[in-house]
Write a structure and sequence with these properties.
There is one protein chain. This protein has 248 residues and is an alpha/beta fold. The chain has two domains: 167 residues, 3-Layer(aba) Sandwich (Rossmann fold), CATH 3.40.50; 63 residues, no CATH class. It contains nine helices and nine strands. Strand 8 and strand 9 form a beta hairpin. The radius of gyration is 18 Å and the shape is globular. The chain starts with a strand and ends in a 20-residue tail after the last helix.
Length: 248
């Protein structure tokens, strides 16, 4: 089932055309990763998909009553604000203790409800943001460079959690990423943006595409193969190497 479909979508910001003629779709239950260099239009496309930016031309068609959960890059909070995780999850809408416990468990931080937000590590903080998005019972979960502040093992662990969420809840996932070698392994499809859709397909297809290599080079290939071990046991063993992050 199609959750979102764009046809000939062209978007402007501050009078400048940022994206042109984007044809894309997101189906129920799939993980789609959106990659591209800075200024390629990734965040602009997300704004168009959620209705925060009106198309200059083209269309965005969404499933009726589509529920979207959003995980931002980060959230700047007053470090002195005395706010527990449970209180944070109830902003702006209150939720039952059971609902919050389920969301925190699904996000991989089951025992943090009473912890102060200011005491969380970067990885815990991102998982609490994920739990907050999951309280929406989303059909589509959008993560906007949600691993930006994490190191590679932390990012790998976070995206493994996203793969678990998709498996357990059946929601679709749109990941906006600068961290291609960590994200791609769990993705069903990858869209490479640079003002338009340069290439699209499975991770392997996009990784080998000349358009992708022109933007990113080929240096991420080895790291991608290592991370893929967690998700795909039919991989080409000639590219596999063990290190301490295999099962992060």
């Amino acid at each position: 089932m199609r959750l979102i479909t764009t046809t000939g979508l062209t978007l402007k910001q501050a009078g400048k055309t940022v994206l042109r003629d984007v044809d894309m779709h997101i189906d129920r239950g799939e993980i789609v990763t959106l990659v591209g260099p800075n200024g390629s239009g990734k965040s602009t496309l997300v704004k168009g998909l959620i209705g925060a930016l009106k198309p200059e031309s083209g269309t965005v068609d969404t499933l009726h009553n589509l529920r979207i959960g959003y995980v931002p890059q980060t959230l700047h909070m007053d470090g002195l604000l005395p706010l527990t995780v449970a209180r944070f999850l109830c902003l702006p809408h209150r939720h039952s203790k059971d609902a919050m416990a389920r969301a925190l468990t699904e996000a991989g931080v089951p025992n943090l409800a009473g912890t102060q937000m200011r005491a969380l590590s970067g990885g815990q903080f991102q998982r609490v943001l994920l739990a907050r998005a999951l309280l929406m019972a989303p059909d589509l979960l959008i993560l906007d460079e949600a691993t930006q502040g994490l190191d590679q093992p932390g990012a790998a662990a976070f995206y493994q959690q996203i793969a678990n969420v998709r498996r357990d809840l059946g929601c679709a996932v749109l990941m906006v990423s600068h961290d291609l070698h960590v994200v791609m392994a769990a993705s069903d499809r990858v869209l490479c943006l640079n003002g338009h859709v340069c290439c699209e397909g499975t991770p392997d297809v996009v990784q080998d595409a000349p358009e992708y290599q022109a933007l990113f080079g080929t240096g991420t290939q080895g790291a991608f193969a290592i991370y893929r071990h967690d998700h795909d046991h039919a991989h080409d063993h000639t590219h596999h190497h063990h290190d301490e992050h295999d099962h992060a």
